[in-house]
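This follows on from our talk about sequence and fold. I would like you to pick a protein and set down its sequence and fold. Go ahead and set the record down below:
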Amino acid sequence: MSHANKVLYLGDDINTDDIIPANRATTDDPDYLKQYALEHIIGVGELLKYNAIEAGANFGCGSSREIAPIALKAAGIEKIRAQSFAEIFYRNSVNIGLSIEILGEKKQNAVVDAIAAAGGLMSFNQMRRQGKMTIPPSLTPKRPMTLVEKLLAKASGNPYVQPGEVVFASVDLALSHDAVASPVAKTFYKHYGEEAKLWDAQRVVLVADHFIQVNDIRPDKKAHLMYEQMVQFAKDQGCHLFDIISPGEAAGICHVLLPEKGFVRPGMVIVGTDSHTCTYGALGAFSTGVGTTDMANIYAMGDMWIRVPQTLVFELSGTLPPQISAKDIILFILGQIGCAGATGKVMEFRGSILAKLPFDERLTLANMAVECGAICGLIVPDEMTRNYVRSRTSQEFEEMIADPDAEYERLYQFDLSHLEPQVARPSKPDRVVPISQLEDTPITKAFIGSCTGGKLYDLAQAAAVLKGRQLADGVNLFIVPASVEIREKAKALGYLEIFEQAGAQILKSGCGACINSGLGVLAKEETGVYATNRNFKGRSGDPTGKNYLASPRTVAISAVKGKISHNLD
């Protein structure tokens, strides 16, 4: 049957876990992926009946996985029209030649149009290498600039830039992990030659963390193959590799590990094949997620194209109530502005609250900026930043600050003096309510871990709750230190003993259940509360499961009470 001109109509916030679920992501085979595109929305194989998609706002939000647009294109989708696109999905689609249209947008962009006309980013960059294409300098006149504009102006070799223009920015650090590194390597060799070398091996870091535990919950030979191919690529190229340290155990989750190992410094431009690369903005760097094609081109060229973003400022003031954490703050902000509230923009956090937050908590704020649609969560460096960085590396760094009269798209001011614990209901991170307004919600699973909830401060919050207490009957609590260093410190501080005595299961470091690839995932119709960053349908287990998001403290209390709660009495 012909599917000519058959349009699939979808709503707002169609995320990459909707487009291609995480449990399908251990292969980049288009013929496989096309069968499972949008399976949780319309069913397996159903997208093959359509050739166009029309959707609402924020299409493609969530993960940076390029297999999402690849799956759509392979299924026969020729064009996607939407009110707006998540920035990484937009980039990935342009890069692979999938036609997209922002409904109602009339302005054109010469560089994006040139990439599209060349047939995608690969062809465009091949023309650059052959001298057939050059990147024109910015024509932006002298103007005051925000911090992110200054970072991108310097990286692109321009004195001034402005929001909306496309520049090619030099990359200081490139990250990938076992879920994506192998497809990146294949793409890199395919287009730049089997003998191709990285533009700078010392600026590339590969981490085994995403799918290394998947066989604990289901057999998946493809995941191990992807891991092996990543390790081989690292050996062939001589780049940095954080391999597994024992079967199924990561040296750390990438977004915690890289700052911990001194790779991240203020003033850098950092990219990673993971949407939570935005975390490193907590150290005054511009950091963002990219897809497979982008990264393969960065490996060859050392730069990336990017639309200079607008900046939203979040002024956080007042006196933070005891036991309220950064997770509560960012969930509150999500509830206020929504998953599309910062689409394609930078969220810059400021205010008196920041000075009192431990450094780990700043990482949490920046980490979940992407849940608001932002491409980076940014914090201007201060003495806390400097002390942290100098404790991790002896390398020099250059700080930048915005001009006093720089222009921002919007200023949000939140007095957090009366903030109470926040909970995000399934199945979107912005379905947030104060915990006092949450209906009675019994649970059977609780999870404290991931790049969002497995840092030392997170474990300290959980230990303070669990000391001398036991889990409720019928509740399983899983705790995952985000790195080996964190595990060792948690052990020395007595946290691990507290967790064990309470009845919690302490798992090996890795992404695990956060991406439906390790112990702690939700079973059919099961309800859990997780200190992770996303609760999309099927993200952390069976699509019929219900995943609530909360702070590590709230998760620990809930595990003791047997229902989502913030009261220990």
